[in-house]
């Protein structure tokens, strides 16, 4: 058994190294050419943040494997090499909170600072924003921890008289306790007045994790609820709206001319906004116009991509069209598989979390049976379902960013992603990863029982004052299901329609 624990430690180290190398690969291939050989600090933050988010998702399956390592231990030293999961959880999520609320905002303020200013002035400006945020957060955390940083546990006070030790034990449904006259134990026959509240102060790291989880849970409920439906349905309806045939050259010239006019309008608008920025008149209207330009540029790029698909050019035009057709077929297959996973998630939430008592443990039983087939099969399926939730959050954020004005759009594009977009998406992933893990620890409580994650995200988190009512009444789970249903209805009503050409772009005056 000790050898198994050592192997678990080695696997954890190897996985961390592979995750770090994979994130470096993503950064190199997604970064914009303008950021090559510069912006090293934001790049380090991006790689480190992505690694922390991926490791945090993988820690829950590792926690389950860590628990199983000592299940059949036969000597005291068998579990000496198990991972200290509780300490690792707290360390990961404290680092997560520091990255989200301090390091990433500093990197974004520094990167987006006026390029005409010196490096010292850009650092000073970014530090002013971050220090102000740090002071406000520290005061808020201190006040909240002092006033409400306690956990209330409902316990029952029991007492009984002593009895002689019997010569034989005879327990059955009618004789549940020791003693000739004892029919029911005190826990069954105790009155309601025996219940009392046991209060203890939570540790400060656990309270910080709890508050970060609440902030992430709000975003997770909104983005995840929308994304769990739009992620698979978006792929399926993308196949439905696909170009059916190659357009003629005259049609291509006509569409390209219109897109060229739109590009000139956006270039003119961007130059005007840059001129306003230089003059120092960056008010609310300016920021609103910047977001409007970003949205129109993204839509224009999508139109250009669609036009290139409908009229492939070059010597390998036929090959390009064949790859386009295969790409849409792949989207259909992935969309159908994703729809199955999404339906399984929604059904599991309703069956296991919202109905009391649960009708079935559903996916928990599936993972356990997969573990019986092969030791890591259930753990791998468990990790996949957790990762799928994180992908749903990202898909929901992108969809709402296109539909709503107040959400800043930061698309990730192969070979054309600026560092501010990288940082924004890393911050979103980090913030929501806390809630994804907490949500999975609750949804798969039967499979992940007796783990360190259950201790942190289960009883302790759900017993904190003020916070516990959000979990007692399943606020986040209900919101998740409602938004998933509304998104499904929206796609059923409008998802199959082709996008109409946008009107002439104008800045608000």
TrEMBL record:
Keywords noted in UniProt: Coiled coil, Membrane, Transmembrane, Transmembrane helix
Transmembrane intervals: 6-28, 40-60, 90-111, 123-148, 207-240, 332-355, 375-402, 422-447, 475-494
Cited InterPro entries: LMBR1-like_membr_prot (IPR006876)
Keyword Transmembrane found: yes
Keyword Plastid: no
Topology versus the membrane: Multi-pass membrane protein
Coiled-coil residues: 249-310
Location(s), subcellular: Membrane
Location, primary (coarse class): membrane
GO CC field: membrane
Protein known as: LIMR family protein
Organism: Anisodus tanguticus
């Amino acid at each position: 058994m000790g050898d198994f624990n050592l192997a678990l430690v080695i696997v954890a180290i190897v996985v961390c190294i592979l995750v770090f190398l994979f994130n470096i690969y993503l950064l190199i291939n997604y970064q914009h050419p303008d950021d090559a050989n510069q912006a090293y600090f934001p790049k380090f933050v991006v790689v480190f943040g992505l690694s922390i988010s991926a490791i945090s998702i993988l820690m829950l399956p590792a926690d389950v494997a860590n628990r199983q390592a000592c299940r059949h231990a036969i000597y005291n030293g068998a579990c000496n090499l198990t991972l200290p999961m509780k300490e690792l959880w707290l360390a990961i999520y404290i680092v997560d909170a520091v990255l989200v609320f301090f390091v990433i905002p500093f990197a974004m303020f520094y990167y987006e600072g006026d390029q005409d200013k010196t490096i010292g002035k850009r650092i000073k400006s970014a530090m002013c924003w971050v220090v102000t945020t740090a002071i406000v957060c520290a005061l808020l955390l201190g006040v909240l921890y002092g006033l409400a940083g306690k956990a209330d546990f409902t316990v029952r006070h029991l007492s009984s008289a002593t009895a002689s030790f019997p010569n034989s034990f005879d327990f059955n449904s009618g004789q549940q306790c020791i003693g000739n006259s004892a029919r029911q134990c005190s826990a069954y026959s105790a009155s309601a007045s025996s219940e009392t509240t046991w209060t203890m102060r939570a540790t400060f790291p656990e309270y910080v994790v709890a508050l970060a989880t609440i902030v992430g849970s709000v975003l997770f409920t909104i983005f995840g609820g929308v994304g769990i439906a739009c992620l698979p349905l978006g792929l399926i309806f993308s196949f439905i709206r696909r170009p059916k045939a190659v357009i003629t050259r005259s049609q291509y010239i006509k569409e390209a001319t219109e897109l060229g006019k739109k590009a000139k309008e956006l270039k003119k608008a961007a130059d005007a906004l840059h001129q306003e920025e230089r003059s120092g008149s960056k008010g609310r209207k300016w920021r609103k116009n910047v977001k409007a330009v970003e949205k129109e540029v993204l839509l224009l790029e999508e139109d250009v991509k669609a036009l290139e698909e409908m009229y492939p050019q070059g010597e390998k035009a036929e090959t390009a069209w064949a790859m386009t057709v295969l790409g849409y077929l792949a989207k259909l297959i992935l969309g159908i598989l994703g729809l199955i996973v999404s339906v399984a998630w929604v059904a599991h939430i309703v069956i296991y979390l919202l109905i009391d008592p649960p009708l079935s443990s559903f996916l928990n039983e599936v993972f356990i049976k997969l573990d019986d087939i092969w030791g890591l099969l259930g753990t791998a399926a468990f990790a996949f379902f957790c990762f799928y939730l994180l992908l749903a959050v990202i898909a929901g954020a992108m969809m709402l960013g296109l539909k709503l004005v107040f959400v800043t759009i930061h698309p990730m594009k192969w070979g054309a992603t600026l560092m501010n977009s990288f940082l924004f998406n890393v911050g979103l992933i980090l913030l929501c990863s806390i809630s994804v893990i907490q949500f999975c620890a609750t949804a798969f409580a039967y499979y992940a029982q007796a783990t360190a994650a259950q201790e942190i995200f289960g009883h302790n988190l759900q017993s904190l004052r003020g916070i516990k009512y959000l979990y007692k009444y399943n606020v986040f789970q209900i919101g998740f299901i409602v938004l998933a249903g509304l998104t499904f209805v929206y796609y059923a009503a409008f998802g199959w329609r082709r996008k109409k050409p946008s009107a002439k772009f104008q800045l608000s005056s």
